[in-house]
Design goal:
The complex is a heterotetramer, with two copies of chain A (207 residues) and two copies of chain C (331 residues). The longest helix of chain A is centred in the middle third of the chain and has 19 residues. The two termini of chain A are 16 Å apart. In chain A, 68% of the residues lie in helices and 0% in strands. Chain A is an all-alpha fold and 207 residues long. Chain A has nine helices and no strands. Chain C contains eight helices and 14 strands. In chain C, the strands form three sheets. In chain C, strands 1-2-4-3-5-6 form a six-stranded mixed β-sheet, sandwiched between helices. Chain C has a six-stranded mixed β-sheet with strand order 9-8-7-12-10-11, sandwiched between helices. In chain C, a hairpin with a 4-residue loop joins strand 13 and strand 14. In chain C, helix 2 packs across helix 3, helix 4 packs antiparallel against helix 5 and helix 6 packs across helix 7. Chain C starts with 10 loop residues before the first helix and ends with a strand. Classes of the chains: A mainly alpha (207), C alpha/beta (331). Chains C and D meet through helix 1, helix 6, helix 7, strand 11 and strand 14 of C and helix 1, helix 6, helix 7, strand 11 and strand 14 of D. Bound molecules: adenosine-5'-diphosphate (ADP) (2 copies) and magnesium ion (4 copies). One magnesium ion (MG) binds next to loops of chain B. The site of one magnesium ion has 3 residues of chain B, from loops.
Amino acid sequence: MFTVVHVREALRRAGEKLLDLRDRLNELDAAMGDGDLGLSMSKGGEALIEYTEPEVSPGDDIGKYLSTAGIAFNRAAPSTMGTLLATALMRMGKEAKGATHLDAPALARLIEAATTGIQERGKAKLGDKTILDALIPASQAFSAAIQQGQPLQQAARAMVEAARQGRDAAIPLRSNVGRASWVGERTEGKLDPGTVLCVELLEALTS
Amino acid sequence: MFTVVHVREALRRAGEKLLDLRDRLNELDAAMGDGDLGLSMSKGGEALIEYTEPEVSPGDDIGKYLSTAGIAFNRAAPSTMGTLLATALMRMGKEAKGATHLDAPALARLIEAATTGIQERGKAKLGDKTILDALIPASQAFSAAIQQGQPLQQAARAMVEAARQGRDAAIPLRSNVGRASWVGERTEGKLDPGTVLCVELLEALTS
Amino acid sequence: MKKILNDPKNFVPEMLDGLLKAHADQLSYAGGDVHCIVRADAPVQGKVALATGGGSGHLPVFLGYVGKGMLDGCAVGDVFQSPSAEQMLEVTRRIHGGKGVVYIYGNYGGDVMNFDMAAEMASMEDIEVRTVLVKDDVVSNKDPEKRRGVAGMVFAFKCAGAKADQGGSLDEVEAIARRALANIRTMGMALTPCIVPQVGKPTFTIGEDEMEMGMGIHGEPGISRESLKPANEIAERMLKTIREDLPTASGDRVAVMVNGLGATPPEELYIVYRRVHDLLTADGIKIHRAYVGEFATSMEMAGCSLTLFKLDDELAALLDYPARTPFFVQV
Amino acid sequence: MKKILNDPKNFVPEMLDGLLKAHADQLSYAGGDVHCIVRADAPVQGKVALATGGGSGHLPVFLGYVGKGMLDGCAVGDVFQSPSAEQMLEVTRRIHGGKGVVYIYGNYGGDVMNFDMAAEMASMEDIEVRTVLVKDDVVSNKDPEKRRGVAGMVFAFKCAGAKADQGGSLDEVEAIARRALANIRTMGMALTPCIVPQVGKPTFTIGEDEMEMGMGIHGEPGISRESLKPANEIAERMLKTIREDLPTASGDRVAVMVNGLGATPPEELYIVYRRVHDLLTADGIKIHRAYVGEFATSMEMAGCSLTLFKLDDELAALLDYPARTPFFVQV
Ligand SMILES: Nc1ncnc2c1ncn2[C@@H]1O[C@H](COP(=O)(O)OP(=O)(O)O)[C@@H](O)[C@H]1O
Ligand SMILES: Nc1ncnc2c1ncn2[C@@H]1O[C@H](COP(=O)(O)OP(=O)(O)O)[C@@H](O)[C@H]1O
Ligand SMILES: [Mg+2]
Ligand SMILES: [Mg+2]
Ligand SMILES: [Mg+2]
Ligand SMILES: [Mg+2]
């Protein structure tokens, strides 16, 4: 069972990972967007690290903790990806509202809520070459594994593996939404920065 | 005895020399001014070449021919040096007004008039590190040689030699007027572009 | 990085602080946050309020058009980055004069999502918000709904702002913004990249003798990278591309904007304008007004954009209406 | 050479042609020569006429200030080169409204010689001409009489233009120009060179991390080449140098101009302005008006200049007076 203590640690690891990814994400985004993804994500990362500074007690409301993290993240990183991730955090918060403990099925519902939130806020579909191309299969793989009763570690590995495959499967595609869509066919053959971010974040969260 | 036919040839040679000097003068001017001396002088040179296009008759008024050349030169090259050389041409024109033939002493008076014109228009003195540092000694050498009865060729050589010495003697000086004066001590040790121009022009005119 | 700044992290707040000090007679800010720029006399009671917002680095866009006869407020983001939904809401609250608020801003992912959030929050506070997206960049997408917004937004600010100043209703001001934008097209080209202060290196690389036609104002790649062409050819191609998308014929009346992206001198912009003027005039198209200068920039990027705005009588009159902001004065 | 142009030889005439087409309601030209720019309504009978002139490449300087409340005419030279005496005379003839003409222009060798020639010729045609040289660049020479003229000339145009528009006599307009200039000082700095189209390469070279304090607007070397400093330090040093030459104390009233040389974005200029504002305000000096933007440029040079203008009541009122030109509108 997970408490807010674990959530806090996970958010902190995510924040640190975002700082590490700064240059790589900037480069990937420069190749097909405006080259600022690393910049905004590192600001979001700093906000998460600052947010997770204070101690928490195992009995705290996980939902509230996640929602407030989303607001802090949006304030620090109001970019496309920043707003999407903020939305994800807020939707997870809504899903976990009132909960102090999460079991594996609850974790799967959280990840589904995040995925749906990103879809609704950004209005992109699978195959548009966005973060969703990694996130949707990852979320599905996780839920399926949990439903099949697989141990959490194994489900997490399946999730990350599905995200990787989704990321790589999106390489030949053409970006269909956001800044990258203006680049048109020149995006074909390139890694979408959002999918890379997704894989890295899921790795950090599940490690 | 010189007629307007010789004057026309001399102006044409000067014009061609100004075209040749374009890059060198730009470089020299860039080192202590605004780097455009070659540009403006090549425009003046083109104007002289165009001006000397039509045939002249040996009986034409030399003064008028020189004055009108000055106006054409100013129109094409209204820079500092262009205006000074235009003034020189106009003053020579004034000096030769009505003349169809010039003997050696008349030539010397023309060069003196040009030198005085440049001094009055630009208000610079000997030692200010300008074209005058080459022109004043050159004019003096020429007049002295003619007065001593030296043959014209020899007087011309003395003039060019004096200009060269004046040019080189000005190298250690600090520019005291015009754009170069703002550069201050950094002009010390550098050739003044105006003195280089003077030497080259006198060579072209007397060759 | 050849920039005049202090700590790159403080680039935007220091810029805003300086700007608010220089223009204290015309501008103020809301919610204690210098990113929330509003007219010094906001709210103007009984007037429809206009707001915009977007990333920094495009001055005079966006905040430069806050002032009498144009916009009431602007949420300012970091360089090339959207402001947050909270900041937009702060501006909305402060400028609302009881007749609703129209958001007019460029069609960029981050901005759209945050403005949508802000509009949802504003409606919960009983402020009626209408959203008009600027999508004038012809070459950014074949689908007109997916195009990005660039310099043409200034004409939309101008006309909608004039309509609001004349007492237009929320419906009327929104309708004018939409009608103006339906008749506005822009195309741009760039010669050099720019540098985002916190990134510290150029947004892209380009050869010493190359240009990029269709380049976006954040350095988004355009439609073709090619050798630098003469100004006349650049002007002709931009005009042709625009006119294929916005049919114009003899007898039509237009406003023209030749906009510099930052480093391109006005002298060069006038050389481009000259060709555009000659081509339009030869086709019997009347140029009602010409705007040549820097209206929407990308820091120190070299390049320009051309905007064509097809006018009807009402749009022409609204364009002619006086306006006064720190960056745009028309009498 | 990354420039948007056609044949470099036609750079200036094409620029002027485009500019005259864009601003036909405000500008015209004299003697069939587009280099001789005059107000569309010239001559204004019964008004003292003001003329300026100088090389191209500095827009809005010089011709950008021709218009109501400022200048009547401007002779335009090639890039960084004086116009000819004949062109200046042509402008003088066309703008003369029967009350004489005041020349206000920068102290550059070629310009001075040509304007002197033009004034001599004009006086032979019974046009009374007064000459006021702008020498505001503090660091260009220890001797104030030998200094060159830079951005501060805009304040002189503004005040003398207002005085003339108000019906001032030739003596009065000349006196205002002189009094304004006695109270105006400028200092500049540059980060990059610019390119003269017909030369085709940079006017000077400078390291990737260097700046030149005191750089001239044609790329004339300044007083020191050094590593790039933070904006606050640059602002402080420019202000200090100016104030050593133009004593200012608590209770004084000034106008401030932070001017971009071409490629420096307005964002950076506001960061510089911010520091200047804070320092002056801390010393009890009142900032009557702030001008931040591009007022006198050097093509695509990166850098900025700071101008301080110490005001008395009359100069302040003249600075506040309305003006309208294609590049400068004040209401
Ligand atoms: N509408 C959308 N829905 C989901 N993901 C999106 C959307 N638009 C862009 N993305 C993702 O966001 C990434 C770019 O994020 P970011 O750099 O923050 O964008 P911007 O700089 O345009 O604000 C892309 O790589 C893509 O994966
Ligand atoms: N007042 C002056 N009198 C005589 N010669 C001068 C004067 N000022 C400058 N010069 C000469 O002119 C040269 C520069 O000419 P030019 O490039 O035309 O000047 P600018 O670019 O300043 O108009 C200098 O090298 C110097 O020899
Ligand atoms: Mg991005
Ligand atoms: Mg020179
Ligand atoms: Mg971005
Ligand atoms: Mg020159």
